[in-house]
Structures are given as C-alpha cells and as structure tokens.
Amino acid sequence: MGMASLTEDRDQIRTEMEGLSGLFRKIREKGPFTPEAFSILSMGMSSDADLAVAAGGTHVRIGTALFGARRG
User: Which of 51, 56, 54 is nearest to 23 (CA)?
Assistant: First the structure.
C-alpha cells in the first residue's frame, strides 16, 4: 500500500504515484517474484483515486468517499 504525501499539490502526488508504479513494474519484471504473485499495486485514497488509477494502481482505498470524513 503506497500513499502519497499529504499535500494539495496534485503534481507532486502524481509524481510520487508514478514513481511507485515504476518501482512496481521493475520488481515485477526482474523478480524475485513471479508476475502472478506480484500483481497488486495498492496506492491512493479517496482524494487522489483518479491519480492512483491513472498511474496504474489496481486497488485504491475509498473509505472517505463511501463513509465520509471521520469527525473527532
């Protein structure tokens, strides 16, 4: 599970997610795992789900989108 920095700067978030996606692809290609055993790239949350999917994320945490923000 990867999470980008807590920032409103969507360019920074995009850059971080693309970096994680690149690392994921590199590990998937070179091992030590088989591609079938290393197939999930979980990154992003409700506020940046679009960027996570665009960068290649296969799973996104969307709790806030479903249940709203927690009130303290």
Answer: 56
* Residue given tokens 């990867």 in the structure block: 2
Distance CA 70, CA 39 (A): 31
Q: Where are the alpha helices (DSSP H) in 1-72?
A: 10-30, 49-54, 63-67
Per-residue pLDDT tens over the stretch 9-32: 999 999 999 999 999 999 999 988
Nearest to 56 by CA among 2, 26, 29, 17: 17
Distance (Å, whole) CA 70 – CA 50: 22
